[in-house]
Amino acid sequence: EAFRASGASHILALSGLHLGIIYTLISKASCILGNRHQMKVLRSVSNIAICTIYTLATGASASMTRALLFIILREIGKITDRPTKLNCLLMKSMLIQLTISPHDILDIGFQLSYAAMAGIVWIYPPLNNIMTDDEADKLTRKIWSSAMLSISCQLTTLPLTWHYFGTFPPYFMLTNLLALPLTGIMMPLAAITVFLSYLGVCPEIMMAATEKLTESLVFILETISEM
To answer: Distances from the Cα of 13 to the Cαs of 9, 16, 140, 149, in angstroms?
Structure first.
């Protein structure tokens, strides 16, 4: 209820956000293989394979499939040295997904996922560029970018959210400014903690840190939801 009322349901639900964080994590880890062409191919294939397994293991929802298609197309572009612009990724992934599964267009997750990405692709850049790098320090610039990203997503998803759920979280910007950075730290740490725990070598401090971050996230969202 706290996640819903504060506008953070996208953090709790399995979505492209989670797959994006996992993809970033494994991409960073695979950098140790180097940048030779053969290694780049191996890295891309490994990234796609791990993300595909994760997507299938979590049920391959419409929003997860969208994120997976983004990753596959991006990695293919890296292998072939033909990087694809974000707007092209958006349209290509939608075309592929609807060709494979036309009924996905009726899925709420599909609609919200692509609507949010549309905001990021077409609304976020001009809003973000209102403040130039010369006009603010790094911290202010980062806060501004996060706020504009949040507004961009909300502008394109608001009609759908209101249509389906009849609600609108008034403090969505505060939620995203506080919760998303915390989630970005918590989820990779949690993934590493689970992996090391499986190997039996996880330090107690990592488990304690993961627990504290989770408690902090819940506390923040409960506080916002009660405002």
So the answer is: 6, 9, 30, 19
Contact residues for 215 (Cβ-Cβ < 8 A; gap 6+): none
| Encoded tokens for 32 | 């140790």
pLDDT tens column, 32-56: 888 888 888 999 999 999 999 999 9
Q: What share of the chain is helix, strand, coil (3-state, %, to 5)?
A: 80, 0, 20
- Token pair for 152: 């961009």
d(CA 41, CA 157) in angstroms, rounded, equals 36
How far is Cα 155 from Cα 148, in angstroms, rounded to an integer?
10
Query: Can you spell out the DSSP letters for 143-199?
Result: HHHHHHHHHHHHHHHHHHHHHHHS---TTHHHHHHHHHHHHHHHHHHHHHHHHHHHH
- The model's pTM is 0.83
Tell me which amino acid residue 38 is. Answer: Q
Tell which wins on pLDDT, 111 or 173: 111
Query: What distance in Å separates the CA atoms of residue 35 and residue 144, rounded to the nearest whole number?
Result: 33
Greatest pairwise CA separation for the chain in angstroms: 54
pLDDT value, residue 213: 92
2: Cβ–Cβ under 8 A, 6 or more apart, which residues? 8, 218, 221, 222, 224, 225
- In the numeric block, the tokens 């499986």 are attached to 198
Cβ-Cβ contacts under 8 Å for 103 (sequence gap 6 or more): none
